Amino acid sequence: MTTFLLRHFVRDHENAQDPEVRERYGTLSGSVGILLNLCLALGKFLAGLATGAVSVTADAFNNLSDAASSVVTLVGFRLAGRKADEDHPYGHGRMEYLAGLAVSVAILLVGVELAKGAIGKILHPEAIRFSWFSVAMLCASIGVKLWMYLFNRDLGRRISSAAMAATAADSLSDCVATSAVLLGLLVSRFAHVSIDGWVGILVAAFVLRAGWESAKDTIDPLLGKAPDPALVAGIRETVLEHPEIWGIHDLMVHDYGPGHIMASLHAEVSIDADMAHTHDVIDNVERELSSKYHIIATIHMDPIVTNDEHVTALREEMLSLAQSMDPAITLHDFRMTEGPSHTNLIFDVMVPHSCALSDEEVRRELARLAKERDPKYITVVQVDHDYTGK
Question: What is the reported pTM?
Fold first, then answer.
């Protein structure tokens, strides 16, 4: 069914990283969500009136809030698809994250209201009128919500959308919540025990949990979470496939929303190479990264000495000393200046966030270790930090 809908309503649906195609995905998801949730809300509201069960009525309002959330998702994708302008030179891609956050907040608010209504039902219980129409409505709702979970999960995976992942999680929690409501009705009918209020509490708990998890998933990219490790590894592998590039460092990935990702890095190249040729290689690598990963890449060239065995040996020696403090430390931009009384060793070290040492402690320890190797060594160290989360 998902493939059928994509073929008929999302033009060029296979090009999932294109912002315009993503907008069409969002329009499809939002439209389907609005239509189905409004139908479910109406059916459950009538079922709630027929039975007098607060849990059924609460589930109806839960679906009504889902319809509103679908409207937010649809609007969010449309805004995210807008092109860059003077006020937003990096585009509007993060609107998709804000839409997901708005959906999460709406889910949390509904959960709180459902809990309040259920507590009132526990304190002031009322008899429930059994209705087979209500049972049929709840069973149909479970089936529809399960399909919506699979539908939005599939769409979310195709375009890596946090907003759709939030919608899918909400649909799955609705399945569980509605199943609990159905169980409450059946227990009331056949066991003659009213658990309506307690089932309402259970429904509220599932809704609150789904809202909280969805909020975390959308807040992380807004705060600036570490990039996808697979993307980082892919960028490194693609750049280092070119023999003119000896190493890379200071890789940074900036996420301005799906389809609006920028990356910058420093590439080490031989100081003896033809700079015009090397510059051409760098330009080709930037285009290759853009084509392969749909990112805007900027690469800075760092010329290094590659044909001096003494410098190379000293570089490896300093790397070994640095990694004796933390095996994850890397070293780059190594230079050496020799004089009659001392030798300056100038380099940068990339320190992981997990390292317990401060920047100054790293510098002092490297200076001490270098002095132990040769009293003439004077280290001039710049401490950098890894922004890829590794």
Answer: 0.61
